[in-house]
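Human: We require from you a protein record containing the residue sequence and its fold in token form, and nothing else.

Assistant:
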Amino acid sequence: MLVARVLDHPGFAPELLALTAVEALGPRADEWARRLRETYPAAGGDGLARLASRRFVRQAGIGGATAALAGAFAPVVELAAVLWSQANLVLHLAAAYDRDPTHPDRAAELLVLTQVHPDEASARSALAAARVADGPDEQPGARAAEAAWRLAAPLAAQAGGWLALRLASRLLPGAAVLAAAAGDAAAAQRLAARATHTYRPPHPSPA
């Protein structure tokens, strides 16, 4: 269903993926937070958030290292791994701070936190358009190019880096794997900081 929708409306690929992530991954994040709270009643939101951040930052690093071994397809493989781990990270952090990870609002927040959209208003507008889109896109080429750029935004800064990684790997075996792992882990850490800032409730001011 998702693949067919993306093929029909490639311009809405980021929005369709965000909606699907909330639908598919949200319940898992909700169950994860509920299970940990039952097991560790004293665990607060910050504690759960640290667990989620460590887990998915590590997962992002593993995904980057795996992608670096994919040769010419490395950027594509890395993009898929990054998007999946980023969605998981954001939804688990939302659950850690008692935000329902299955709520439709999380899709808009995911698009903003991953820097696909600059603000929630534009994200909500695009999501609304994606939900009602029907029939094949009349301009698939232009819309697909736009969507590809927006989806690749988290990796845009690394685009030129792949050539450097290739050269480094010839001189030092394993350099590309280490660099990709470190880069994706660092990107996940930055996303975790943004999501934590968004979802953590404000601390009460001292009396």
DSSP finds nine helices and no strands in the chain. The radius of gyration is 18 Å.
